[in-house]
Amino acid sequence: MTSVDTSWTDDSLRALDDRLVARIGEITAGELTQRRTQLARISPETAELADWLLDYLEGGKLLRPRFCFWGGVAALDREPTDAEVDALARYGVAIELVQAAALMHDDVIDHSPVRRGRPALHVRAASRHRDGALSGDAEGFGVAVAIVLGDLALSWAEQVAATVEGAPDALEAARAEFEALRTEVMSGQFLDVLHQAGGFGSAPDEEQAALSVIRWKTVPYTVLRPVRLGAALLGADAAALQTLSTWAIEVGTAFQLRDDLLSVVGDEDETGKPIGGDIVEGKRTVMLARARADADAEGTALLEDVVGRADAAREEIDRVHALLVSTGAVSSVAQDVREHAARGRVLLAQASTLSPRGRAGLAALAERATDVASLPA
């Protein structure tokens, strides 16, 4: 597993975070080894699915499990015990498996060729089909493998979550958050597909539709439900959970808006995704909605011609990027990220029901997830 650098300024926070990352790695390796043994009883080929998944999880930033963990720490007035770290780490692994499934399926839906700087799973599976001179269509095989392995990851996420131990009331509350996480992210994924097809008719306009997709696809499973799950698991009361919810919506929204910016002004080596991917995929982002609203006739024609065209040339994508900048869409979205992040910082600073240690950990994660100072925008 890979840990993301949060630039900890407190050695005690770093040490606590390191405990989490180490435990997540141990649980992941143990669970997938056990699953591999189970699959090997079926056939040597099915056993390889566990290897594929373990390899796929490498390079992840563990952002969601860490929001879960520091939400739990925020509910305590002391350092978590080994048993509490284990419980939070197990739910973290379950969340990472949901994340893996979502990414595998999302890359198929969006026809995305790259993930984390490597070929997307369906692309790798298609290459394996060709390398092995297998029968049939290689691309169709790749898509099928991605769907199957994503479904398997979802199934195993449920099984890992079921191994978490704790007080019955806390387990029930945490389970409700985990169930909401899975329902909301899939609902948000549907809204994303629907909006991209022009069918999100209940939203008042294109920008509000894009914000609704963020609210239900990104916010719940990236920040809101993980942080509430961790806090609920360690006994947070209703007031603390509500505070975390309000904070998480600000941070989660900023996170996705920043991710949209990275498709235009990011560094491919850092993001692991090709710049311009949202353009060729036809993603209806807040940034695109603002560009459409402010573009002249020539700019509107450019957007209609290029956005969503898989065969768009590099120079055409660059022209769209230039339009996103010249219309002010890029700068306005960057400002929105700063404002959401600032509101989150204020909320966290005033959250007296949360522990100082937990607030410090959440603040460090939020800073990393919402930073735009290093971007050209």
Task: Report on the architecture of this protein.
The protein has 377 residues and is mostly helical. It has one domain (11-370): Farnesyl Diphosphate Synthase (Orthogonal Bundle). Helix content is 75%, strand content 1%. It contains 16 helices and 2 strands. A two-stranded antiparallel sheet has the order 1-2. Strand 1 and strand 2 (118-119) form a beta hairpin. Helix 4 packs antiparallel against helix 6 (138-161), helix 4 runs antiparallel to helix 8 (206-233) and helix 12 crosses helix 15. The longest helix has 30 residues, at 11-40. Mean pLDDT is 93; it is low at 1-5.
Concise overview:
The protein has 377 residues and is an all-alpha fold. It contains 16 helices and 2 strands.
Biggest sheet, spatial arrangement of strands: 1-2
Integer count of domains: 1
> What CATH first level would be assigned?
Mainly Alpha
Mean pLDDT score, rounded? Answer: 93
CATH architect. name: Orthogonal Bundle
Globally, the shape reads globular
CATH topology: Farnesyl Diphosphate Synthase
Q: Please state roughly what percent of the residues sit in beta strands, choosing from under 5%, 5-15%, 15-25%, 25-35%, 35-45% or over 45%.
A: under 5%
Number of helices: 16
